[in-house]
Design brief:
Structural class: mainly beta
Low-confidence stretches: 42-67
Largest sheet: 4 strands, antiparallel
Distance between the termini: 31 Å
Mean pLDDT: 75
CATH topology of the largest domain: OB fold (Dihydrolipoamide Acetyltransferase, E2P)
Order of helices and strands: HEEEEEEEEEEEE
CATH architecture of the largest domain: Beta Barrel
Radius of gyration: 17 Å
Number of helices: 1
Number of strands: 12
Strand order of the largest sheet: 1-2-3-4
CATH class of the largest domain: Mainly Beta
Length: 152
Amino acid sequence: MGDHKKFQGHIDEVAKLISEYNLSEATLEVDDFKIVLRRQRPQFVAAATAPQMVLEQGVEETVSAPAPVAAPVQAGTPISSPMMGIFYASSSPSADPYVKEGDTVTAGQVIGLIEAMKVFNEIHASVSGTVKKVVAEGGSLVNPGDPLMYIG
C-alpha cells in the first residue's frame, strides 16, 4: 500500500488530465506498478464527481469526491462513448444494426459508429459476451463516458 505514495505526483497528474479532458478512464503503468483511474458518473447527481483511484493491489481511494447518490446497477460491462458525437447503430439507415440485445459479440467487434466533425469513428466492443442492453439510440447525441450498451 505504501508503494503508491512514491507515485503520488504521477497519480495527481493523471487525475488532473482525466478532469481536464473529461476522460472516463486512464491507466498509469510504471515498471510493475499499475494504477487505473475511473471517473464515476452518477446519473442522478447534479454535482460532478472526482476520479476514483483503483490501485492494482485492490486498494481504492477517492479523490475529494462528494458522496454520489446510488444509481441503479446495470448488469454487464458498459461500452462507453469515447467522444462527443452522433451515435449510429448501423452503417446506413437501411442496414441492420451492428448488434442488438441478445447478440453475442467478441472483443474488438464493431458495435456502432460515432460521427464527430463529419468523420465516422468505429466503436469496438472491449469485451466478449452477450449484449444485455443497448442504451444509446441511433441518431442520438452522446458525450464522452456515456454508456452506449452493456455486455455481460
